[in-house]
């Protein structure tokens, strides 16, 4: 598995992935709700949208907007099983372990924290 820093370096080379940034309203939402709540949201989204062996509507299950975590999922290539496989070699067709789900949530939160702290 690659480190978060390696992943961020690789993602920065993608015009598509690096185009995602949080708006001021989304940053305010994160600050208002707190990182604990946002982390719980991220864990729920990962469990629902990525953890099943064959997620419903895989490749189209994560909206591009509507929640800071959704943007983070696209920015970090954690939006569908195909992207997880392409960018991180996560096997398709098998459920994600709780440990891997937790690592994805940690990575999403790291991206969100970078966005919040880039002011």
Keywords:
119 residues, mainly alpha, single chain
Q: How would you characterize the overall build of this protein?
A:
- This protein is mostly helical and 119 residues long.
- The chain has helices spanning 4-12, 24-33, 35-49, 68-75, 81-88, 98-116.
- The N and C termini lie far apart (30 Å).
Could you give a short description of this structure?
By secondary structure, this protein is an all-alpha fold. Helix content is 58%, strand content 0%. The chain has one domain.
Secondary-structure blueprint of this entry?
Layout lengths: L3 H9 L11 H10 L1 H15 L18 H8 L5 H8 L9 H19 L3
- First-to-last CA distance: 30 Å
Major sheet description: none
Number of strands: 0
Rg value: 13 Å
List low-confidence stretches: none
* Structural classification: mainly alpha
Query: Which geometry do the CA atoms define?
Result: globular
Please tell me the overall pLDDT.
Answer: 94
H-E order: HHHHHH
User: Which percent bin holds the helix content?
Assistant: 55-70%
Strand content: under 5%
Q: What's the number of domains?
A: 1
Quaternary state reads: single chain
Total helix count?
6
């Amino acid at each position: 598995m690659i480190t978060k820093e390696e992943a961020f370096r690789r993602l920065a080379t993608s015009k598509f992935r690096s185009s995602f940034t949080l708006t001021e309203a989304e940053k305010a939402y994160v600050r208002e709700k707190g990182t604990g709540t946002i982390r719980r949201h991220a864990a729920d989204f990962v469990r629902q949208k990525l953890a099943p062996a064959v997620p419903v509507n895989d490749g189209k299950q994560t909206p591009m907007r509507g929640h800071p975590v959704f943007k983070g999922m696209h920015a970090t290539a954690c939006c569908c099983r195909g992207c997880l496989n392409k960018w991180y070699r996560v096997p398709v067709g098998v459920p994600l372990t709780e440990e891997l789900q937790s690592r994805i949530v940690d990575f999403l939160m790291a991206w969100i924290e970078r966005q919040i702290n880039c002011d």
